[in-house]
Amino acid sequence: MLVGCGSHDITPQLPVATLYNHPSRADLTEHVADPLAVRCAVFRSRERMIAVVAYDLLAMSRGLADAIKADLTPLGLSPADVLLSCTHSHTTPLLVSFRDRYPADEAHARLLRERTRAAVVEALAGAKECALGVGAGRFEGAINRREQGRLADINDLTAPSGTIDPEVGVLVARSERALGVIVSFACHPLTMSAGDAISADFPGALVQAIETAEPGACALFLQGAGANVNPKLHGGRAARDRIGGMLADEALRVLRETELRPSDDLASALRTVELPCDLPAAFDAARRIRERTDRGETVAGRDAGWAEDLLAAERSGALPEALTVPVQVLRIGPALIVALPGEPFVQIGLAMKRAVAEALPEAGLRVLVAGYANATDCGYIPAPDVTRFGDYETVSAPRYYPCLLGPTAAAAEVLARAAAQMAAEMLG
């Protein structure tokens, strides 16, 4: 199999708005702590070509993802053959319009389209015959924030983790002169939680550490199902480098121990599924908010705006009963990558791995989960869980994502079933 890698800088022009900026105070981010990049790996066999693209970005709209995929079609890549994944670093420009933040940065979106195509062209031009291998390590530096506490409560590597996915998935492609590495791990990039500068957060530190340790290597990070998972350390550059360095050390150990073999196995599938929403509960909440505003009570502008928009959509009949989202499955040699939209809870990633293993017990493939993929503007995708620390992800967050509604916990089963079926059909 021919494998090539490419990367281009996507650090924005300053000043720029991130999730930490507030238009009511007219503030913008004016510093860069470390650069942002789009990185891609292209895999090519005699009959197929697949591109995996990772962005140092918080989120990406479905419309932008579709436009980027259309840009790559003339290169011989269909939408099903292209995986677009955001690392979800919070200290990056906004490309999804949140209700109480700045609108999407259209100039940065144009830059993204241009640099993505350039990175893919670079990867195609430099593709070399490679052997492939896949392995997994383990990292306990993450914590379930709904079970154990959020950033204000935890800043300790020895703290209990709760429900997490500690697996560090590593896909390796190596030729005589080149090395490509894809690392997957499920954890919010929040080590730079102060939000005072542009940063790729720990995913950027991770890929830089791998490329420093392996001269000439190209590394990509795929964010897993980490919606309810935080790093155990946060607060700035030292935490960023420590978490990224520890993950890189584990990934390097795995890649150096992984057996590599020639392979021409490539396949892709892309399917649209519907995630259920609890419309009655959302309408009840919106009506209560409006009643409070009518009584003259103080209501957050985001909540009031959400309630008005939701009720207006109900009156016009424009509100769907379910969220329509893409699910993608890629076979790359000994690995199966399941790409999920939005911000999936860790329980969904774990369920994905179990469902595919049960559906394909003889396949011998390792499953890597990529969240925040192909469409991130549908928001959090919850799963049945036990929480002691609030309902931010399921109640508050849908009020600033553009979709207005969040899916219910039943979405976990819908996604796991779809991925298992797609994988079985792909390999059947």
Verbal overview:
There is one protein chain. With 428 residues, the chain is of the alpha/beta class. It folds into two domains: 2-268 and 325-370, no CATH class; 278-320. The chain contains nine helices and 17 strands. A five-stranded mixed beta sheet has the order 4-3-2-1-5, with helices on one face. A four-stranded mixed beta sheet has the order 6-8-9-10. β8 and β9 form a beta hairpin. α3 (201-213) packs across α4, α5 (279-294) packs across α6 and α7 packs parallel to α9 (411-427). The chain is globular, with a radius of gyration of 21 Å. The two termini are 22 Å apart. The relative contact order is 0.16. The model has no long low-confidence stretch (mean pLDDT 94).
Task: Write a concise synopsis of the structure shown.
The protein contains 9 helices and 17 strands.
SSE topology string: EEEHEHEEEEEHEEHEHHEEEHEEHH
What is the count of helical runs?
A: 9
Give the N-terminus to C-terminus distance in angstroms.
22 Å
Net shape: globular
Count of structural domains: 2
Spatial order of strands in the largest sheet:
4-3-2-1-5
Helix content: 25-40%
Oligomeric description of these chains: single chain
Percent of sequence in beta strands: 15-25%
Q: Taking all residues together, what is the mean pLDDT?
A: 94
Major sheet, described briefly?
Answer: 5 strands, mixed
Beta strands, count: 17
What ranges have pLDDT less than 50 throughout 5 or more consecutive residues? none
Helix/strand/pairing class, anyone?
alpha/beta
Radius of gyration: 21 Å
Secondary-structure blueprint of this entry?
Elements: E1 2-9, E2 37-44, E3 49-55, H1 62-72, E4 82-86, H2 106-125, E5 128-129, E6 131-138, E7 142-144, E8 167-174, E9 179-185, H3 201-213, E10 217-223, E11 229-231, H4 237-257, E12 266-276, H5 279-294, H6 301-316, E13 322-332, E14 335-339, E15 343-344, H7 346-359, E16 366-370, E17 380-381, H8 392-396, H9 411-427
Parallel strand pairs: 3-4, 9-10, 14-16, 15-17
Antiparallel strand pairs: 1-2, 1-5, 2-3, 6-8, 7-11, 8-9, 12-13, 13-14
